[in-house]
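testing teh design pipeline on a random one, pls ignore if ur not involved
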């Protein structure tokens, strides 16, 4: 469990400067989906409810369902709850969960324009019932808000890089400049490049596990 979680967490930040996840203090792994109490607000009315989740994050904590994380790690698809939740941790670094991670001031406007445009076009497609193959790649959950859009886009960037680059080239380039890596190139360069990348990430994973193990 620890190694698989660490592998994907390290894959996301191994080329980025700094300490990776400086605000992260705790990683909790449950064997299955978990239930949380939530407050919901609609039209000024607040109600209590319970939700069954496969992942959750706060500025210093990641909570994962190993049942879902394991299935997505060993049977890869466009979904990856580990990548999704660690993307939220990166988003939290500037103190906000808004889909705009900590960036140099000169890059914020470009980020907001590119990600904001992609988010709004997805919203528009859903509102008008035109969920083409392009928007199906991201899915309805990505339209929840900008924070979830960034987390879902990060999943697709690492797990489905070729279709993401084809359908959303500007978004792919934005994530490429943020993560300082190009998964689409790994796919094109063949198994040798993928093996080298995996070996490098595995080395980082051991240190990551040591840092977050009791």
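output:
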């Amino acid at each position: 469990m620890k190694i698989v979680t660490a592998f994907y967490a390290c894959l996301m930040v191994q080329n980025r400067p700094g300490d990776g996840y400086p605000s992260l203090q705790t990683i909790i792994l449950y064997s299955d989906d978990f239930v949380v109490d939530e407050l919901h607000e609609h039209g000024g009315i607040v109600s209590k409810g319970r939700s069954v989740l496969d992942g959750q994050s706060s500025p210093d904590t990641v909570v994962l369902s190993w049942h879902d994380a394991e299935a997505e790690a060993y049977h890869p698809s466009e979904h990856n709850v580990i990548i999704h939740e660690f993307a939220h941790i990166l988003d939290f670094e500037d103190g906000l969960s808004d889909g705009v991670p900590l960036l140099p001031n000169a890059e914020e406007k470009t980020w907001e324009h590119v990600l904001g445009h992609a988010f709004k076009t997805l919203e528009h497609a859903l509102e008008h019932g035109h969920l083409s193959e392009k928007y199906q790649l991201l899915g309805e959950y990505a339209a929840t808000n900008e924070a979830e859009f960034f987390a879902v886009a990060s999943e697709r960037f690492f797990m489905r890089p070729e279709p993401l680059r084809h359908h959303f080239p500007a978004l792919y380039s934005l994530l490429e400049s943020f993560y300082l890596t190009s998964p689409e190139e790994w796919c094109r360069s063949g198994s040798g490049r993928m093996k080298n990348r995996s070996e490098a990430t595995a080395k980082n994973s051991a240190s990551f596990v040591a840092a977050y193990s009791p």
